[in-house]
Design brief:
Length: 97
């Protein structure tokens, strides 16, 4: 029986793996400006990241965060909340590294 490629079921892609891949694709852009980003955790629809280097404490970090969120939503295909680890600490929520 001949089956087309689109007829063959595929295993579901792990959400955290897809998010990690999308963030890895963004890292060189941030690194060119002396910054970096690290995926800390994925908890449901919340993605926790850690800004490093020039991104840490940058006045444009919120703009960068919005760009990261948009790229992740484009890559994953559904809404996500992207928050910096520092914001999680401000609301008293611990995030495992």
């Amino acid at each position: 029986m001949d089956r087309a490629v689109e007829d063959i079921p595929t295993a579901p892609v792990d959400l955290e793996t897809e998010i990690a891949k999308a963030i890895a694709d963004l890292r060189p852009v941030l690194q060119r400006d002396g910054g970096d980003i690290e995926l800390v955790a994925v908890e449901g629809d919340i993605v926790v990241v850690d800004f490093k280097g020039a991104c840490s404490g940058c006045v444009l970090a919120s703009v960068t965060l919005a760009g990261v969120r948009k790229r992740l939503i484009d890559a994953i295909g559904h809404p996500l909340k992207v928050v910096p680890r520092s914001a999680m600490a401000l609301i008293g929520k611990e995030v495992a590294a």
